[in-house]
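Handout, page 2. Input:
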Amino acid sequence: MKFGAIDIGSNAVRLLITNVFETQNGPIFRKSELVRVPVRLGEDVFAQGHITELKARKLVDTMHAFKLLLGVHDAVAFRACATSAMRNAANSEELVARIAQVTGIDVEVIHGKTEADIIFSNHVEENLYQDRSYLYIDVGGGSTELTLFSDNRPVASRSFRIGTIRLLQDKVEEEYWERLLDWITEHTSGIEKLDGIGSGGNINKLYKMIAVKEGKPLRFRQLKRMYAKLNAMTYEERVMDLGLNLDRADVIIPACEIFLRIMEAANIKDVIVPQFGLSDGITRLLYENYVAKHGQLSPL
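Output:
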């Protein structure tokens, strides 16, 4: 069976369609299709406080296209969640109502804590070493979510208004950094064995660009070297020489900065990059809710 997850972020809007089937060892999740549209709602919101009509039309059209794709794929269930940009937009309620009227899709504007909880439904804790602690770092266009794992469970979590689009627009005040760094100091001081877990499109792309061997962590020194390399290149060079998408070539530098500052503050040398995010978490919850209502899916 197929499930659909829509992630309305500050930089891009994504539709993930996943095939889920049962085996003797539990459910298997296989991505069937991933569509990413760089609407960049954050450009409007973080500069003007609302979403302009041009961006609103693009979002509605994108959601209409996603609804058609969900129908073609015969998705048995789907869920749409909007994050930082929609949380901060003065006209978000109006836009949510417009999307529902035109497309029939009910968009949930979720808080940072809910966003983190959905991502954690991927059961990341199952693959962690019990003798280590982990700082989960999810960097988006409008916000960064941090969660500290200890003894295989989340013990502290917070969302900060620091994101790649905000940094590009110079909308991150120094006090925001101070709050983030103070939180890290308060919750990680005294922890000897602390690693990071990175989430978001930029860290996934960096992981591939640095050519880290599959299953191995991304090291602080590797990320620092890549940051210096990217900073030394022009926007055009990052697009032409590195093959980055137009909407990735600018935000990848502030993403590097955020990860490096967090890792340095927490004294993290290695970051695990499992390459999942909000859409994967939504899919997991849709599957679990479906099973709770209808029973297990048919075995493969």
